[in-house]
Amino acid sequence: MQSPLFAYTEQQSQDRYAVQNPQLLRVALTGHDDVLARKGAMVAYQGLIEFDGEYESHGQRQTRAVTGEGLDLMRCSGQGTVYLANLAQYIHVVDVDHDGMTVDGDYVLALDSALHSEVVAVDSEYGISGSGKYQLNISGRGKVALMTSGQPLMMEVTPDKYVNADADAVVAWSSALRVQMQAQTHSSGVRRRRGSTGEGWELSFLGQGFALVQPSEVMPPQHAEIGQGLAAQYGVGGNGAYGQNQANDWSR
To answer: How many domains does the chain have?
Structure first.
């Protein structure tokens, strides 16, 4: 059998995390350190690998119910190779060090089991209930695989060069940065989007570090309903969907 498809065979690597192609992650397991991956993200594996639901404490379940933020994970253990992907998102491996990283949990594909995560709040400067944003702070030493809709932009933040970004386009940032959620608007109702521009809430980053921004203001919804009614129009979950998108094409 011959086909151009044979150009997409497995890429050999000595690295624990290796990007097989821009939208597929290869993780090598040696039987010692487990990997926590997004539930349902496994697309293939080789070797003696076990998959188990990751335990979530009562406090973590309560936090998720209140904030909507958290990680829905499975534990991958054993010896072999696991291939992970989610909705053909672009995948990026990040080394987390003592500085830590703050990330939107929707964009986490996998992480080392030794890393610690906790929910943190980014408050609105207007103090309006419900207008803030909750994120995950990941600390410790290890690797995290992030996902973006399209190729992202890594923006450097310095004391003399702060960065503003659309709150729905921000994927992650250095935990050492000072962050505030704000809406620049000329209207008296700060809940409204900025005039007729279509722009709304933004995050302002100050200090020394980096902010990762994707070229899309939302991630494709995880469990969108297609059909009639509000559930189909807005989707199930925090990101929404469009019922007319029958082909599940999120590139347009």
So the answer is: 1
- Which residues constitute the domain of residue 30? 13-234
What's the token pair of residue 148? 């973006």
> Which pLDDT belongs to residue 251?
43
The percent of the chain in helix, strand and coil, each rounded to the nearest 5, is 10, 45, 50
Average pLDDT over all residues of the chain:
76
Is residue 110 assigned to a domain?
A: yes
Do residues 213 and 155 make contact, with C-beta atoms less than 8 angstroms apart?
Answer: yes
Specify if 198 maps to a domain. yes
Backbone angles phi, psi at 142, to 5 degrees: 165, -165
Whether this prediction's pTM lies above 0.70 is answered by: yes
Number of CB atoms found within 10 A of residue 200's CB? 17
- CATH number, domain with residue 99: 3.60.160.10
Residue with tokens 């996902």: 147
- Whether 77 maps to a domain, the answer reads yes
Higher pLDDT, 135 or 130: 135
Beta 202-206 vs 163-166: how paired, if at all?
antiparallel
Residues whose CB falls within 8 Å of the CB of residue 247, separated by 6 or more in sequence, listed in order: none
Using CB atoms within 10 Å of the CB of residue 167, give its burial: 0 to 12 exposed, 13 to 18 middle, 19+ buried.
Answer: buried
What is d(CA 167, CA 218) in angstroms, rounded to the nearest whole number?
A: 10
**DSSP code per residue over 123-134:** -BTT--TT-SEE
Tokens linked to 239? 């990101």
